[in-house]
From TrEMBL, chains A, B:
Residues 19-89 form the HTH gntR-type domain. It comes from the Bacteria. InterPro entries: GntR_C (IPR011711), TF_FadR/GntR_C (IPR008920), Tscrpt_reg_HTH_GntR (IPR000524), WH-like_DNA-bd_sf (IPR036388), WH_DNA-bd_sf (IPR036390). It comes from Acuticoccus mangrovi. The keyword Transcription applies. One of its GO terms (molecular function) is DNA binding. This is FadR family transcriptional regulator. Pfam families: FCD, GntR.
Amino acid sequence: MSGDHLGEPDPKIAPVHLTAAYELVVEQIRRAIDLGLFLPGQKLPPERDLAEQMSVSRSTIREAVRVLVADGILSVRRGASGGLIVNNVHTRDPEELRVYAKRKRVELNDIFDFRIVVEQATASFAAQRRGDDNLAVMRTALAAMEEAIAASSAEDDDPDPIAAFNAADTSFHMEIARASKNPHLLKSVEAIRRAMFLPVGGVFIKLRKDANAMHEPLYNAIADRDAARAAEIMAEHVQATRRAMMEFLDGKR
Amino acid sequence: MSGDHLGEPDPKIAPVHLTAAYELVVEQIRRAIDLGLFLPGQKLPPERDLAEQMSVSRSTIREAVRVLVADGILSVRRGASGGLIVNNVHTRDPEELRVYAKRKRVELNDIFDFRIVVEQATASFAAQRRGDDNLAVMRTALAAMEEAIAASSAEDDDPDPIAAFNAADTSFHMEIARASKNPHLLKSVEAIRRAMFLPVGGVFIKLRKDANAMHEPLYNAIADRDAARAAEIMAEHVQATRRAMMEFLDGKR
DNA sequence: TCCCATTGGACTGATACGTATACCTTTAAG
DNA sequence: CTTAAAGGTATACGTATCAGTCCAATGGGA
């Protein structure tokens, strides 16, 4: 029977994956670009600065740059006022992009299935438990979003309004989570924010203008301590965002 | 002004954290134990096997073992039929545990608030998406729970049936999460189990006998693909567990 | 009783990865 | 045409991890 040591019942323990430093750097840079912190045509900080900011050696940064260049995400120009330049998205193979988008679609659906559940509950708890300090932060975030939208309505092509909007939006939702006084909900919302921007990027501020329309009523419901209404509005809000994102992925941009 | 090179506008890019291999190993093993994949008193596979299973060298495993021993999670015995032994967490007397758990009352409430939300949704999705393989695992877990209850009904005072019940219970709920086909829900359920394992321990298997009564109907609802019923039963089940736990904390036992 | 298989403990040399540092090359701006 | 600001290249060093070998304890079976 050749009976070696068969019999291992089940693999309760899986292989560990050791992530290389340069991979972490690749992820970080890719994420920053996806978030709209660096727009096409713009330059990243010089390699030496990146190295310092990321607490990593320049060699490691350069390995990461190689990967990003190979992926068509960056271009490199040498010489004075050269640097690491963020590529235009169109430079990339359309077919590859479609496949990419489709994969992201699945990820996004998972995220939104999760998000509805979590944020609805979060809104409900927040309405019951919020303090005035929470309201204050939320109001600040609302104002910041308005401002960002106003700034972006100009022909201005700065990255700042986009990043600013995303930051404020995140701050708004996170404050609701904080108001829920539940650390697990807070952690989940945080995870959602992180996961969401990876597949999508901060490209579509315009789509979110209407989504933003629901922020104010949501604020009011929470201020009024109306848990049911808050939950309802939040559910709608998340659904609206989901629709907008899916349309975006379907190429209607 | 002293104007050095101030002006770095914002740190769009954060330091990366390089995780050592042995840390990953520690995390894996700790997780497996938290989830009841290895019960107190049981042995982990020999270092050499662990190394192979985790695609890592034995030296790395040993570094991780040092950490786990220092944390009091493992004991090491040398020689033939020695090995890495999972320590018993709840060797303490019930009263002491109750005091400990009382301190954890707030934390437990947070966990259950979160748990209702998450596991209800999980059950609903599971009913819609489960495969036959999921049912098989769930059935195995059900049987294991019955067996554990039977074993504990004896005058037996071993920790084993208790831990075994918890492990099977965890396996049951985790499999539902797996059937939901949503990685975020799965991660959350796992986090819940890990958070509950410590404060709850195996103190009160008797209380859970009735809770266990709901496992079978829950299984049926999921097998029937009845999402609404599954969600409802799950909500009740979690509530029942919560009540039982709170009563225990209030000393009714 | 005694041998021996099993399992943790300890050591060594090889290698890959990341760091630190210095220096070269390209290029735009003054 | 000099200079400063990038990226490009090269070298040496430290260390984490690996692969392999041998030692030490220990319990069970011949």
